Amino acid sequence: MPETDYLKIPQNRVGALIGTNGDVKKSIEEITETVLDIDSEDGTVYISPSENMEDPLGVWNANHIVKAVARGFNPEVALKLVHDDIYLEIIKLPLYVGKSKKALARYKGRIIGKNGKTRELITELADVDIAVYGKTVSLIGEMDNILVAKEAIEMILNGSRHKSVYSFLENKKETLKLREFKDLVGIHDDEIEFRDGIEFDENIQ
Description:
Helices cover 47% and strands 16% of the residues. The chain is of the alpha+beta class. The chain is globular and about 50 Å long.
């Protein structure tokens, strides 16, 4: 059986993790088959397997859900992490822009954009959820989509113009759509299979 895990979260996110009348805490415990012991004083969260746990990844899943809430995500979005194909990526801004409060505020502002436009476009075009909180930008979504969103955010952090970032995202969205279509109809490595038994002659005009 998985062992007890623990992590610390910001104190101002403890309320979000517990929820009204403890409803968020209960939801996480039920979905992951774990028991959460939350210390409201210092923000330490202990995650233990419940007696009826069947999923060996229950504690691991609960850890990531709690971490996502701690990084600013709505609990409903964080609960998506219980699915095997959904991941959490945390980008630490000081690694890109240093520890200056002014620099952190400026780049967080660039990632969010005027009236939230940039964050909204990244969310829509890369099909991910984004949380900008403290010194981090966090992403939740499928791995291919996270990689696209992360590259777009890194472009912003490296000084690219928003217009260039939007163009990049639009191109990547089309690429991902094409890949999904090819997977759906069984096309791989740019090879087209004709399934009706008709041979294709390139010399026919």
